[in-house]
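Lecture 7 notes: from sequence to structure.

We start with a single chain of 209 residues. Read the sequence below before looking at the structure.
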Amino acid sequence: MARYNGPVCRLCRREEMKLFLKGDRCYTEKCAYERRAYAPGQHGNARRRKRSDYGEQLREKQKVRRIYGILERQFRNYYVMASQMKGVTGENLLQLLERRLDNVVYRLGLACNRAEARQLVLHRHVEVDGRRVNIPSFLVKKGAEIQIREKSRSIAKIADSLGGVDRRGVPGWLELDKENFRGKMVELPSREDISLQIREQLIVELYSK
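Now the structure, written as tokens:
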């Protein structure tokens, strides 16, 4: 499946917020958004017109897609799944996205960003409940244990990422055992556990048209 392979800092500037797509670099003064907090392109620093309601909804959807590294068709499938679940559709959508295996690996601090976490999963370095899983979109269930394969624990990037986990923090719905390169989903993520600046209702309104 295709993936965006271009410069990611311009995505943060386009969405006018930090998307934390470059891991630890986003926490330093080298962050491109900190230096140029305006849209990319020749006219990025010019005064911008007020967006329409549709424009606001579209930008919110694009922002969430870029945060989680998902293409349009797959994102829409998540929306359909969320709309068929009990509860609030927008919150269900965010919960499904947070439960993706690549996101859980990132949230545990085993990778410094979601792209790196996706690569770890694809290269079969990650196990779920003792079984190797190489599908980044695999939905992790409550109580599942996620760990790095014993043969893969010497990978330098994993150790570097765990070294910075205290700065990034681990959400309350996950439990990390740093010494053993493993974690556990102790409960399903709720809306209160997701600190990202996301207005999920705009996405629901966009797809409900």
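The two ends are 28 Å apart (CA to CA). Keep this in mind for problem set 3.
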